[in-house]
Amino acid sequence: MTAHRTTERRHSSGDPLLTVAQAGEFLGTGERFIRRLITERRISYVKVGKYVRLERATLDAFVDAGRVPSQR
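-> structure tokens emitted (72 positions)
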């Protein structure tokens, strides 16, 4: 077993992998914004061959990290 294999996070089968377009639609943004997040390494992604996919849980965590609580 290689070193990177031991630190690898397994994908749960209940969490769908989304395309960049689907991720943009999910967040209500365009593909360009999602690609910028990926390029700047602000969001983790999965490489499936030459394709980039995003886990829905990752997008949920990104939204939660940007949540601003109310003052009430």
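The longest helix spans residues 56-65.
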